[in-house]
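Subject: for your reference before the review

Hello V.,

The reviewers asked for a structural picture of the protein, and I figured it would be easier to keep everything in one thread rather than splitting it across files. Below is the amino acid sequence we used in the manuscript, unchanged from the supplementary table.
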Amino acid sequence: MSPIEAYAERFGARYKWLATGTVMLGTIVTTAASTMVNVALPDIMGAFGLGQDQVQWLSTGFLAAMTATMLLTAWALGRFGYRMAFLGALAVFVAGTLAGAVSTTSNEIILARVLQGMASGLIQPVAMVVLSEVFPRDQRGRAMSIYTLGVVLAPALGPTVAGYLVDEYSWRDVFLAVIPVCLAAMAATALFLPGRDTRQEAASHRFDGIGFLFLCIFLVCLLSALSNGQREGWSSDLILALSLAALAAGVAFIAWELTYLRPLLNLRVFVNGRFAASCLVAFALGVGIYGSTYIVPMFVQLVQGYTPTRSGLLLMPAGFALALTAPVAGHLADRMPPWGPVMAGLALFGLSNWLCAGADVDASFRLFAWWIILGRIGLGLITPSLNAGALRALPHELLAQGSGALNFIRQLGGAMGVNLLSVLIDRRTTFHGDALAQAMTPASAAASNAVQQLGLMLTHWGNPFGSRLPSGAPPAAMNYLERILVPKAQWLAYQDGFHVVAVMFFAALLPALLMRRRAR
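And here is what came back from the structure prediction:
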């Protein structure tokens, strides 16, 4: 008798719901933490004096750590068992959360987010394993629907709660708010989750430490090179060294995983054409899910002047739309070829981002919310059919490896997407700012006339700084124009970011179409 079966016999028919509630507490709190901090990013930027290329590490570090530790699920369960693996991951998450709340430097808060990501990478897969074990085979669809509902509702409510806490209290309270839920999850884990399953003990000796080291070096060096390229210079020695180290670690990881007997990531699943096409779509999906939850709060707060609470409320209807779409999409995934809903979802999300790119400072809250809802409906259509279609393309003996690879690719897309979008927005802000500044020259009749009119207006109002400088330009007028041009440059940069995400999703229609091919 397995430990799960023993607990089920001890607690009776209610055990599956006790175990479900336990693991869902951990899943909901870690999923919410991945998006709640995004609402507080502008305040954190001001608190620590961070730029766009630095603050994105709060999201990128979380996702990169989650990507790496997600592959440790089988080893952790075999080595420590359900109870200790889940308790240990929750303890690490609490430690990272407390560290984020009391951090005094940018490096401390980034490290705190990395700790949170490491814990999340174990908590979410372990929860899926427990749900698969406690529910009978004919009820696992219900179990996965419960899991999916919790995963999609957390990002819907999390940003709204975070926005209220930032406005009424402090960004530090965004970290502290999840502590009570974590403690409740730890107490429930100690009561309702069993220890090690003897059938999994063999897995405790299968940890691919060398592969994990190569993967960590690859992720850290690659993301560091991308995020610091704008600041250090893309041809600088540091960026070139980081790029070469990432390339070497990536090649070493692939070579090791192909030759190691029990690899961390079985790369042979990518030989299947339909599965490889599904992974390309999964990469785009990761970019869309995490990239949009990163740039939308930043855009509406920095460009449109929303408060954190208002930016959180903007995302809440879209989260509920995603939650309502998921059951319908799961029904379609069982009755339609997977490429149909996937392509429809990709088109909807691409259209959503294209529409968001047209938003300016006067775009209404309701209209912007409808555009985001359209994208979330698209994401809801993609996920069930993509997972089902990808795993159907593999033989039974490769299902576990394929599921891990698909989740890994999606998370990698999220980490790289947030990183690349932040770099793009930072570079394009500089580009558009320089372009706008070049137009403000004495050679431009319109610019000269605007400066003269502003100077006369300010002098007439009694502003002593409205008088001319030796160069002929009224200083107050120039300062006023600069305050207008900077938000304009930011708006154009975010517009470019939305366009890039839209084009990427439209391009992902091609690999989605390749999912139609019959596997050999």
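For the response letter, the relevant points are probably these. DSSP finds 19 helices and no strands in the chain. Residues 465-473 have pLDDT under 50 and may be disordered.

Happy to draft the paragraph if you're swamped.

O.
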